[in-house]
Design goal:
This protein is an alpha/beta fold. The protein contains 15 helices and 12 strands. Bound molecules: pyridoxal-5'-phosphate (PLP).
Length: about 400
């Protein structure tokens, strides 16, 4: 079969790998299985979304505009204003914002448009944290760039160490993906870290893509956006050169099935990538677009969602603290536990406790020294109701 040779090294999808790992293992009959492997919110979207989708029934026959409706982009700008203090002078919804049908597709397509054949006469590099949200890796592979995995471990504060970007790497770097709050570790990049990354992007002319999909899922302190840092650095308000951020309703509003997100930043990239996307990108159906505008315009439901996850972390902390390098992440809804051997722990948990978790190795790659920085960990998505989370944590402590 003739296939794109760049994609022959694509590893199995993390959840398929997990299926293979657990094949033939039967969970105890007397226990109800509990799945904490997938980062999918189990709570509903705000109930009023139903009426908006229904009221816009007449628009299902229309091709939706690929950048999102004007109303949606204005609603997103409103949220950026309330959440990150970006005012009217800072962000122009028609210039700096494009909606996307979930951030996954926008993250994936970006390198196809952005990565050149060569940078400074050499093969370009797309760098990403390791472990990482799997789409960055596939996007890098398809673009033809060399993938560079930057370990994000306890030693590096669970974010990539920017010192790893030496002069040779920087001269070839085309895209640096960061994730804050990070999936899976929940670490949040602070102002100094983001400012340093932005300065590097501008000095060496690469695109800094900060995936901020979990920005509204935090414990105590609202995470910063890289756009806010650009604004603080610039003073004049609208210079997002070399910077893009990605946001989604999937985690903020439990709307994984809405397929609704956006990205924002550098006006020149938005224009060029927008032009490319006008040919091929998926767009948000108009009833969902209308609902999304309302969801971005309403913040109180995100208080409830945060309270839900905080309560789950309280439970996990009570039961697990002091074991497996337990820590309470600053953002996101994952527990990242060091069990020594993540794959073995995932098998034991399924066999002896009926709890399904994702081995950290499945969200990470071996670096050039053969080190997989996720191998000793497991990831638990604390997305279920409190009694289920409590039961899962009790079972985990018992069998591990
Ligand atoms: C870090 C991160 N970025 C992006 C996404 C994609 O979200 P969506 O395509 O639903 O907007 C996810 C989903 O799990 C994620 O964890």
């Amino acid at each position: 079969m003739n296939i794109n040779p760049r994609l022959t090294t694509l590893p199995d999808f993390p959840f398929d790998k997990l299926k293979t790992l657990l094949e033939g293992i039967t969970p105890p009959e007397e226990l109800d299985p509990i799945a904490l492997s997938v980062g999918e919110p189990q709570q509903p979207v705000p109930h009023w979304v139903r009426d908006i989708v229904s009221d816009n029934f007449h628009t299902w026959n229309k091709y939706p505009p690929f950048p999102g409706s004007v109303d949606l982009r204005q609603a997103i700008a409103g949220w950026l204003g309330r959440r990150f203090g970006l005012g009217h002078g800072d962000i122009d919804p028609m210039v700096h914002i494009l909606a996307c049908a979930g951030t996954r597709e926008a993250l994936y397509l970006l390198p196809t448009w952005l990565v050149p054949d060569q940078k400074n006469g050499k093969r370009p590099i797309v760098a990403m944290p390791n472990p990482f949200y799997h789409v960055y890796g596939t996007a890098a592979l398809a673009s033809g760039a060399e993938s560079l995995y930057l370990s994000a471990t306890k030693e590096t504060g669970y974010l990539p160490d920017l010192d790893e970007l030496d002069a040779e790497i920087l001269s070839r770097l085309s895209i640096l993906f960061l994730c804050s709050p990070a999936n899976p570790q929940g670490a949040v990049a602070d102002h100094t870290y983001l400012e340093r990354a932005i300065n590097l992007a501008r000095k060496y002319d690469f695109t800094l893509c900060v995936d901020e999909c979990y920005a509204d899922v935090y414990d105590t302190t609202p995470p910063l956006s890289a756009l806010q840092v650009c604004r603080d650095m610039d003073g004049s308000g609208t210079d997002y050169t070399n910077v893009l951020v990605f946001h989604s309703l999937s985690k903020r509003s439990n709307g994984a099935g809405l397929r609704s997100g956006f990205f924002a930043g550098d006006a020149a990239i938005m224009q060029g990538y927008g032009r490319f996307r006008s040919y091929i990108s998926a767009s948000i159906p108009l009833p969902i677009d209308a609902a999304s505008a309302a969801v971005w315009s309403e913040d109180s439901h995100t208080d409830d969602i945060r309270a839900f996850y905080r309560n789950n972390f309280d439970i996990a902390e009570r039961i697990i603290d002091g074991r497996f390098d337990f820590y309470r992440p600053d953002g996101g809804f994952f527990l990242w536990l060091n069990t020594g051997n993540g794959e073995q722990a995932a098998q034991t948990l399924w066999r002896d406790a009926g709890v399904r978790v994702l081995p950290g190795a499945h969200s990470a790659r071996e670096d050039k020294n053969g080190f997989n920085p996720g191998a000793s960990h497991i990831r638990l998505a604390l997305v279920n109701d409190a009694p289920v989370i409590s039961e899962a944590c009790e079972r985990l402590v018992k069998v591990l």
